[in-house]
Amino acid sequence: MSLLAIEGAATLPILNTLIALPLLGAALVAVLPKNSPGLHRQVGVLASGSAGGLAIYLATQFETGVGGFQFETVQSWIPALGISWHVGVDGISLWLVVLTGVIFPVVLAGIDPHGDEKSYTAWMLLLQAASFGAFVALDLFLFFIFFEIVLVPMYMLISGWGYADRKYAATKFFLYTMFGSAFMLVAMLVLVSLSASDGGLSFNLVELAERQSLSQNTGRWLFLAFALAFAIKVPVAPIHTWLPDAHTQAPTGGSVILAAVMLKLGTYGLLRFGLYLFPEPSVYFAPLLVTLGVIGIIYGAIVATVQGDLKRLVAYSSVAHMGFIVLGTFALTTQAITGSILQMVNHGVSTGALFILVGMIYDRRKTRLISELSGLQKAAPVMAAVFTVSMLSSIGLPGLNGFVGEFLILIGSFETRRWWTVVAAFGVILAAVYLLWAYQRVFHGEPTEADLATPDMKSSEFLVLAPFLVAMVFIGVYPKPFLERIEPSVDTLIEHVEQHSDYERPEDVVVIPAVGQDDSEGAEGE
Amino acid sequence: MILAQLSNFEGPSIDWLPLTPQIILVVAALVILLVTSLSPAKVSDSFSTAVTVGSGVAAGVVAWFVWNDIRDEGPSSTVAGAVGVDGFSIFFTILTLSALVATSLVGHSYIKREQMAAPEFSALLLLTAVGAIVMASANDLIVLFIGLEALSIGLYVMAAMQFRRREAQEAAMKYFVLGAFSSAFFLYGIALVYGATGSTNLVNIAAYFNTIGSRINNLELFYVGMALMLVGLAFKVAAAPFHFWAPDVYQGSPSPVSGYMASAAKAAGFAAMLRIFFVAFSRTSADWTPIVAVLSAITLIVGAVMAITQNDVKRMLAFSSVGHAGYVLVAVQAATSDGTSAALFYLFTYTFMVIGSFAVVSLLGWNDGHDVSRYEGLARRRPLIAVAFTVFLLGQAGVPFTSGFVGKFLVIRSAVDDEIYWLAVLAMVVSVITAFMYLRIISNMWDREVDVADAPRLSVPLTTGFVVVVCAMITVVYGVIPQSLIEFARDAVPVLVAGG
């Protein structure tokens, strides 16, 4: 069984190509001579952009209404250990792959790293390849090595191109995540070792998830080990402390990638290697994780409110937003999980845009302190407008992307976790508080001379943000192409959970037509 | 009269082919010493290095032929059952020869810079390699002890080769006194085990335990002997709490020698440990596995905690080498075939990482400074060396796509399969602590804001550069496609074959 293709798979192993393209780009950048200005960046944009194009093509070829994995490729890798190169996408990972594909070329093209473009571009491309790998891996070993290897390029980006405290922040980021993975690796080996007794040694995720041969107690311990690794990555409230440092010290490009892609590895992991791999323990520990999610929402929002540094504020807003996603994930209803997955993309788009904007402000003013900025709107009206839209998307204004995700999460969670949802809803209000207040202080008010001298966005800078704005409006107005690809997989996942635990989801209440369509027939009939 | 008796003496039948690698190395050492001391004109240093490398490669080729024989005909033993001819001995022969060739090449440029004596260095290197190979292939405790002494005594001298430096003398003295102590422990252990089991031959010892079954016979004597042997070997592999010599000796010795100690000498110690404990004492594994487990836990913690407090890169690597001994012990305590092959894989890949690391250290170690600040901005001065060193350090930290990760993975797996979960978790958590130290060096190397314009030009001799690049490539290749090495390590699990 060298190449295994499932219905709808293209002849070209599209997922492998996705991983290979940025790798090739990185190799090319590495051998290009150092003193060729601009060339590295062009090659980088070309390589990551073609991967992005391929990812979008993947989304168009993706069969809607199918819950299982598509574009699957299996290739034996280390047969001595039952490890194979096994990749595939489903509705849960599809949009994260697309997000990874699209955001990297934009970041590479649009954000100046301020020095040593060659290494910067090479690390970025490696990071993209590794992120693709982590999202499409269907083998535990494969996932783990991608999950862990992303640390290296990110560490290099933060410590190489970051701000004053970059070494401290980069090391903290690396060690925190590695600490979590340490437990995950042991748990993974225990899982494989214990499951091996009935059937050969295998790291195949699908096989392990279907087998479910662990005793209840063991399964719960293993789930905790996996969940710890992902909770650190998300980050969930009490273990989030690496995030504000890493975000603040990282270069703008690094912050965008960190928020848009890296954090998603955590929430994606909770879905794929939490719910799917450990259904019973997930149900058992759901109250704990939902509580932590809600704590994250409220805590992140409150701490964001009192930040004096604009970038730290956006970083803490990430903690709050990721809290929503954790809440939705462990609410265990179709709407909530679908909303969570969409919200992963939304958060990448809106927070990514906000980080780029903060980076632009810093480049112009060499400060991110809210107290030193005022009335920027007069000098930079376009920037103010773009900031407004991104901010509103982050707050969750109807008509923009954030609303769709948060609304689905809240409506879906309300069915199973009523009181948690009530508390979480306050998070939406708090988000409006800290973002609008920050906006008010930075863009309104009396401008000083320095503020008046701040140049507005150049058209090239606007072009960088244009894809983000398009995505915000598009997902906000017409989320159907996204939801119809996500939902079948979510349904399959919840059925899997129901099958392997005593959990039963509540009868779905049809709230809005776009959401209520659980079966593929309904989706096609529209 | 005596001659008449001698002519009646019938020696054991000897299969010469498996012994050829050792013989080649001994002959090479003698040739180097004879030619350089008898030649009227001064012989170029390149001669010694060339002979060393050439003999190493030749011995490797022979070892490969022997390996093919073993695969066709199965393992055997020779010299009246005193020397084992199995995958295990071939595995360590190849490991030792790799370390020998790499160290010789790195040492070549180092000797030139430090104006040391090349012939002595090469000859000692060859003889210690013979000692290491004899240790790994010994089937008899006495033979094993001879190998151990040949290895150790050579290393005592090599540690002191920079005799103008006080640190080197201190290191050699410390190593010699403590090493002699540990050898004595080991020898006393052999004596007691002999007293308890009636043989020094590993096959007979294993057979003794098979025959006595559950009947207890002289076991106290055996236990004391076993413990003393463990102490002696733990000293050789630098396992805590018998590691106190390691940081000082690694720091004071010439950098290529430190790399050699951390690779070949450590591997030989583990080879002896595996042969004795995993094979000969396998029946009593319930008695020694808990001790080794505790030993590995202490070693892991000491290695990690001490490593992060150092500022001298050589001392950092020394403590990290202590920590790596801890990982191998995790695999040893599993006392399974999987564990043993994990230990072999780990030692093999670690050899290249640590020799490469010390080769880089030797490049930057002019006038004896090894402070971590010296590595600042290395990436802009010598990008290739910095990339390679990053690979070694990430490999030792156990980052994926390096052989270090696969090694750690196999080691943890053996502990998990053995259901020693606490040790598996401890080993992984410790790897996070040590990662801090590796990251410190890496972030210094890649610091973009350090002014490197005034830094002295860093010359990279061809031989050292070659070793660094090849070691880095091996580290990455076995990280991406480890299958062949995993299979080799699996085929190399030691077996006992009675003498024919």
Structure overview:
The complex is a heterodimer of chains A (526) and B (500). With 526 residues, chain A is mainly alpha-helical. Chain A has helices at 14-31, 39-61, 91-110, 117-136, 140-149, 151-161, 166-195, 205-211, 216-233, 242-249, 252-275, 279-305, 310-331, 334-365, 376-379, 381-395, 401-416, 418-443, 449-452, 459-477, 480-500, 513-516, 520-525, and strands spanning 70-78, 83-89. Chain A has a domain at 279-507. Helix content of chain A is 73%, strand content 3%. A two-stranded antiparallel ribbon of chain A has the order 1-2. In chain A, strand 1 and strand 2 (83-89) form a beta hairpin. Chain A is globular and about 75 Å long. The model of chain A is unreliable at 1-10 and 513-526 (pLDDT under 50). Chain B is mostly helical. Chain B has one domain (15-491). In chain B, 76% of the residues lie in helices and 1% in strands. Chain B has helices at residues 2-8, 16-38, 45-73, 87-114, 118-137, 141-159, 166-197, 202-212, 219-236, 245-252, 255-280, 285-307, 313-334, 337-364, 378-381, 383-397, 403-417, 421-445, 462-480, 483-491; strands spanning 76-78, 83-85. Chain B has a two-stranded antiparallel ribbon with strand order 1-2. In chain B, helix 12 runs antiparallel to helix 13 (313-334). The radius of gyration of chain B is 22 Å and the shape is globular. In chain B, 61% of the residues are buried. The interface between A and B is medium-sized, with 34 and 30 residues.
Summarize the structure.
The complex is a heterodimer of chains A (526) and B (500). With 526 residues, chain A is mainly α.
Question: Features of this protein?
Answer:
heterodimer; A: 526 residues; mainly alpha; 23 helices; 2 strands; globular; disordered N terminus; B: 500 residues; two-stranded antiparallel ribbon
Task: Detail the topology: elements first, then pairings.
The complex is a heterodimer of chains A (526) and B (500).
Chain A: H1 14-31, H2 39-61, E1 70-78, E2 83-89, H3 91-110, H4 117-136, H5 140-149, H6 151-161, H7 166-195, H8 205-211, H9 216-233, H10 242-249, H11 252-275, H12 279-305, H13 310-331, H14 334-365, H15 376-379, H16 381-395, H17 401-416, H18 418-443, H19 449-452, H20 459-477, H21 480-500, H22 513-516, H23 520-525
Antiparallel strand pairs in A: 1-2
Chain B: H1 2-8, H2 16-38, H3 45-73, E1 76-78, E2 83-85, H4 87-114, H5 118-137, H6 141-159, H7 166-197, H8 202-212, H9 219-236, H10 245-252, H11 255-280, H12 285-307, H13 313-334, H14 337-364, H15 378-381, H16 383-397, H17 403-417, H18 421-445, H19 462-480, H20 483-491
Antiparallel strand pairs in B: 1-2
Helix pairs in contact in B: 2-3, 2-5, 3-4, 3-5, 4-5, 4-11, 4-14, 4-19, 5-6, 5-11, 6-7, 6-11, 7-9, 7-10, 8-11, 9-11, 10-11, 10-13, 11-13, 11-14, 12-13, 12-18, 13-14, 13-17, 13-18, 14-16, 14-17, 14-19, 14-20, 16-18, 16-19, 17-18, 17-19
